[in-house]
Amino acid sequence: MSEQTPDLRATPKPEAWRQLAQQIASVLEGTTDDITAMATISCLVHHAFGHLWTGFYRVVTPGKLLRVGPYQGTLGCLEIPFGKGVCGTAASTKTTQLVPDVHAYPGHITCDGRSASEIVVPVFDRMGALIAVFDIDSEHQSAFDADDQVQLERILAWFRHP
Ligand code: SME
Question: Which protein residue's CA is at the shortest distance from atom 6 of ligand 1?
Answer without folding.
Answer: 111
